[in-house]
Amino acid sequence: MVADFQLSTPFPCLIKFADDFEIAYPLFVNSDNTHVINEHNALIQWSTDNHLCINHRKCFSLFIPRTISATPINIPNVNSVDELKLLGVTFTSNFNFNVHIKNIIATASRNLFALRTVKPFISRKNCVSVYSATVRTHLEYCSSLFIGTSFCNTLALDYVQSRAHRIICNSSCDCSLLPSLTCRCTDHAVKLFLASSKDPTHILNPILPPVSILNPNRFIQPSSRTSRRLNSFVPFVTNVINDFKL
Predict the structure, then answer these.
(1) What does DSSP say about strands 60-62 and 79-81: parallel, antiparallel, or unpaired?
(2) pLDDT digits 0-9 by tens, 182-213
(3) What are residue 92's phi and psi, to 5 degrees?
(4) Quick count: other Cβ atoms within 10 Å of Cβ 20?
(5) Angle formed by the axes of helices 151-168 and 181-197, to 10°?
(6) What is the pLDDT of residue 72?
(7) Apex CA 234: angle with CA 106 and CA 238, to 5°?
(8) Could you write out the three-class secondary structure of the chain?
């Protein structure tokens, strides 16, 4: 339905899904940033020309400032929010994933009920399959996004898996029945990083660091002034890959 819509300026990033648009606009310092309004007007005109009605109740804008002094752009008929869920991932204006992790933990915790229900009637191996299908899928959904998250978030995620382990086995069991969520998250992130680096058309490819000239098995580590930057996807995974290939 929306396949033929195109942006009129080179600045934004356009993502289409079925009958939805997500557009990420960069805002420039010392600029009126009229490209945002122009793109919005172009979208309205395109929808009118194609006899498609935009549901303004489902139109939202999320402003993610790089500095405290930055100011958002008011877009007509678009509600400004501090949290926005896109395809199951909750983004916030401060661009951390605390809210998202809290949400997936709540969903995964509720789904432990299914594991408790079937536990008396199936084998341990099948219990692990039920856990993987009903609980771990939520804990790991888009986990590459929040790799390097805070220690508190990591503990909270691991606690849900620990509860599942106690249900499957017992409170005194210390076997490694369920693989570490942190290790699995890192593996997912590394696979995404390497796949993106080999695909020039991948949306992540332009922001990945180049391969070292001196050592083609290593990537050039991006500079990171803050610990938050160091623990974000690109620097964190670059460091993991380089350490692994030493």
Answers:
(1) parallel
(2) 999 999 999 999 999 999 999 899 999 999 88
(3) -125, 165
(4) 12
(5) 120
(6) 79
(7) 115
(8) CCCCCCCCCCCCEEEEECCEEEEECCCCCCCCCHHHHHHHHHHHHHHHHCCCCCCHHHCEEECCCCCCCCCCCCCCCCEEECEEEECCEEEECCCCCHHHHHHHHHHHHHCHHHHHHHHHHCCHHHHHHHHHHHHHHHHCCCCCCCCCCCHHHHHHHHHHHHHHHHHHCCCCCCCCCCCCHHHHHHHHHHHHHHHHHCCCCCCCHHHCCCECCCCCCCECCCCCCCHHHHCCHHHHHHHHHHHHCC
Question: How confident is the model over 1-57, as pLDDT tens digits?
Answer: 778 888 887 777 888 887 788 888 888 877 778 888 888 888 889 889 988 888 888
pLDDT digits (tens, 9 = 90+) for 118-147: 999 999 899 999 999 999 999 999 998 888
Can you give the length of the chain in residues? 246
Residues 134-152 as b or e (16 or more Cβ within 10 Å = b): bbbebbbeebbbbbbbeee
Closest CA to 7 of 34, 33, 46, 52: 46
Backbone angles phi, psi at 65, to 5 degrees: -80, 145
- Determine if residue 87 is left, alpha or beta; phi over 0 gives left, psi from -120 to 50 gives alpha, anything else beta: left
